Every structure is written in structure tokens, then in C-alpha cells.
Amino acid sequence: MKITLEQVREILRKSLGFDSFVASFITSVEENNKATETAGISNDGRLKVNSEFIKKHITSKEDAFCLIFHEVLHPLFFVGFVFFVFYFFSAFSVSSAVYFYLRSSA
């Protein structure tokens, strides 16, 4: 099975809904057997696949969906993780400052 941009978008739209923004997140599909061991995605939506891995392990559209969706989650979770860390440490810093201020003025 060969994975193309059109297939990726069709698979994601059928699975997640025609209006899903996730289908348009992937901007290109590149075969790069030397640099990519299995598959990978950049933060700007370039999906890179190893054609040998695809031939061996991706035999159906369901397999393709699992691989594609797995790769799409990487940048989404990274953005979520960065937001969480920023939010947590900002909230922690503010609450710590308030706590120590109130404690010192008592």
C-alpha cells in the first residue's frame, strides 16, 4: 500500500468527519527510507514514511488510519504539553508568591 496525501485526507475525513481540521493539518506525504525508520511528522504537518515499513505493516485503510492518527497526535500532544507546563508553572509561581507574601505579613 502506498500512502498519498489524498488518501490521508480521505481516511481522516471518513473517520473524523468531513469538516475535521485534522485532515487538513497534514500538508504533504514524503517517502524517505534513509531518514525515517517507520513514520514521523513535523510540527508543520509534513508526514514522512518509510515505504518498506508501509509495505510490510500497513495492509488496510484501518492500519493506515492507526498510523496516521498516531502521528497526528505527536504535534497535538506536544502543543498541549507545552501549554500545560506553562499554565502549571505560571499558576504555581503566582500561588507560591501569594502564599509566601501572606505568610510573611502575618
What is the mean predicted local confidence, pLDDT?
81
Kindly report how far apart the N and C termini lie: 70 Å
CATH class label: Alpha Beta
Spatial strand arrangement across the major sheet: 1-3-2
Outline the biggest β-sheet: 3 strands, mixed
Q: Total strand count, please?
A: 3
Task: From the 3D structure, determine the CATH topology.
Answer: Zincin-like
How many domains comprise the coordinates?
1
Structure description:
- The model has no long low-confidence stretch (mean pLDDT 81).
- The chain starts with a helix and ends with a helix.
- Strands 1-3-2 form a 3-stranded mixed beta sheet.
- It has helices at residues 5-16, 22-25, 51-57, 61-104; strands at 28-31, 39-41, 46-49.
- 63% of the residues lie in helices and 10% in strands.
- It has 106 residues and is mainly α.
- The chain has a single domain (5-104), classed as Zincin-like (2-Layer Sandwich).
- The longest helix is centred in the last third of the chain and has 44 residues, at 61-104.
Summarize the helices and strands and which ones pair or pack.
Layout: H1 5-16, H2 22-25, E1 28-31, E2 39-41, E3 46-49, H3 51-57, H4 61-104
Parallel strand pairs: 1-3
Antiparallel strand pairs: 2-3
Descriptive keywords:
Zincin-like; mainly alpha; three-stranded mixed beta sheet; 4 helices; 63% helix; 106 residues
In short:
With 106 residues, the chain is mainly alpha-helical. It has four helices and three strands.
